[in-house]
């Protein structure tokens, strides 16, 4: 199984090199390999078996990746959870995947009581019981796990706003990593500060560079000061972030007094790079930039634009191209029937290759809907230029991207509608200098209902990044004859 082979290879080639570091500790590749094997045996001793689903609820730390690799070695599926989700959201995901256990930080585990009955095991990373796992476990034989066995359920959101579980195997991770590394041509001395969370598909970027023996530096959460300090402390050569994180870093007073001279490349994705941020970063940092375009359903990052291909800031008139598809994967723009469009003609971007997911967990209808003759539909509108580069021009859905995180208006609308005074609601994205986009809610409500009351109501139902920035009261939500909200009128 590829994740296990990754560890075995790096232990052999770089035993004393730091594999992972967080704000508390660092582990070498030899230590990471040995602890993963020990932890797999300890989890087996607790009763976790091949095919079981195990939730991981934690901020980024070394133990998160130790758990992912240990569960994969055991043949169990790791299910990363967004630690900022509200209690009902976490319970819903765990119930739908049938999680038998949850691993994570004690403060987060204590917050989420009343989990589904299937969850029989709870272990906190920061308690002695986790550290002791496997240290006294018998030398049990672990199962042989194939690359095609499911290894993880990574959650994203569907068009309805309800989280969907993307089922992936090691073959997907391997295909994306090997194709990506051909394009990125990594050196042996990469130290990458990962500013993005390990609970969704962006974690594949970290796995990819780990495959090359890189050191990955983790943070419990992004702040500009924390990211700047990590670069300076670890003499980082690479950073992985979303554009708004880069904006915050450049705006931070500490950026002027921090030694960032070790940086060679900044990887960015999840949202378009604002041209003013790009120009300022090029001027002040003097490093290369690599764009990452990916989607959890196709294995993660499948298109990249390298430093040599990035235009000079003054040459950019619209958006920077996403780049070319990685070897092993294919992408093209198609019309509504699935017919490939000529170069330069805008259509929906679809993807095919060995990185594709096995499907949505226990959701064959949604799986069938996202596939088109063996290609996965991204929902993004774009085109392929004469040099084979993919350009994105718009999103075909009403998705709001807030600082790189996906926010679905329908989910906010449903939360608002649970308030007894709310008659109707519609949510659209509105531009924001700091976050790119934020949700704006239009609400029809009973007289006397206040915005603060509604914001407080949804605070108990939605993660902070999903909550509307502002609520505007209107007399009627515009709808077409079919009953669908005419959101272009609201945006206007």
From TrEMBL:
Instruction: Please list the GO terms describing molecular function.
Output: CoA-ligase activity
Question: What Gene3D superfamilies does UniProt report for this protein, alphabetically?
Answer: 3.30.300.30, N-terminal domain of ligase-like
Q: Which residues form the AMP-binding enzyme C-terminal domain?
A: 411-484
Domain of life of the source: Bacteria
In what residue span(s) does the AMP-dependent synthetase/ligase domain sit? 8-361
PANTHER family registered for this protein in UniProt: LONG-CHAIN-FATTY-ACID--COA LIGASE, MALONATE--COA LIGASE ACSF3, MITOCHONDRIAL
Please give the name of this protein: Acyl-CoA synthetase
- Per the UniProt record, the source organism is Streptomyces minutiscleroticus
């Amino acid at each position: 199984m590829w994740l296990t082979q990754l560890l075995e290879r790096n232990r052999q080639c770089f035993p004393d090199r730091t594999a992972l570091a967080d704000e508390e500790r660092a582990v070498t590749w030899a230590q990471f390999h040995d602890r993963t094997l020990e932890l797999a045996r300890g989890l087996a001793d607790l009763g976790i078996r091949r095919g079981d689903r195990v939730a991981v609820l934690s901020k980024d730390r070394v133990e998160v990746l130790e758990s992912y690799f240990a569960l994969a070695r055991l043949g169990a599926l790791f299910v990363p959870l967004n630690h900022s989700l509200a209690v009902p959201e976490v319970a819903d995901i765990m119930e739908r995947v049938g999680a038998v256990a949850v691993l994570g930080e004690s403060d987060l585990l204590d917050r989420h009581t009343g989990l589904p009955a299937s969850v029989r095991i709870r272990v906190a990373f920061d308690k002695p019981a986790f550290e002791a796992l496997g240290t006294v476990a018998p030398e049990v034989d672990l199962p042989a796990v194939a690359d095609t066995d499911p290894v993880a359920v990574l959650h994203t959101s569907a068009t309805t706003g309800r989280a969907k579980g993307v089922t992936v195997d090691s073959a997907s991770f391997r295909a994306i990593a090997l194709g990506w590394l051909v394009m990125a041509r990594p050196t042996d001395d990469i130290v990458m500060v990962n500013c993005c969370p390990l609970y969704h598909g962006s974690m594949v970027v970290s796995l990819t560079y780990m495959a090359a023996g890189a050191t990955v530096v983790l943070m419990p959460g992004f702040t500009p000061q924390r990211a700047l300090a990590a670069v300076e402390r670890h003499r980082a050569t690479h950073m992985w972030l979303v554009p708004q994180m880069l904006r915050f870093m450049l705006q931070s007073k500490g950026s002027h007094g921090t030694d960032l001279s070790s940086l060679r490349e900044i990887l960015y994705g999840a949202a378009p790079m604002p041209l003013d941020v790009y120009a300022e970063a090029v001027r002040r940092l003097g490093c290369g930039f690599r764009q990452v375009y990916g989607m959890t359903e196709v294995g993660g990052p499948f298109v990249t634009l390298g430093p040599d291909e990035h235009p000079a800031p003054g040459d950019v008139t619209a958006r920077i191209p996403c780049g070319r598809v990685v070897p092993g994967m294919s992408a093209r723009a198609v019309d509504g029937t699935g017919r490939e469009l000529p170069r330069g003609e805008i259509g929906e971007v679809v993807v095919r290759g060995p990185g594709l997911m096995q499907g949505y967990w226990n959701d064959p209808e949604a799986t069938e809907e996202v596939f088109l003759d063996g290609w996965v539909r991204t929902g993004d509108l774009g085109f392929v230029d004469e040099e084979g580069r993919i350009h994105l021009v718009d999103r075909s859905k009403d998705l709001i991207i807030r600082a790189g995180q996906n926010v679905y208006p329908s989910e906010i609308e449903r939360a608002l509608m649970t308030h007894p005074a709310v008659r109707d609601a519609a949510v659209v994205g509105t531009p924001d200098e700091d976050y790119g986009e934020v949700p704006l809610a239009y609400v029809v409500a009973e007289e006397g209902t206040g915005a603060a009351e509604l914001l407080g109501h949804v605070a108990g139902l939605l993660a902070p990044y999903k909550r509307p920035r502002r609520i505007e009261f209107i007399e009627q939500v515009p709808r077409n004859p079919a009953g669908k909200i005419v959101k272009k009128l609201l945006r206007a």
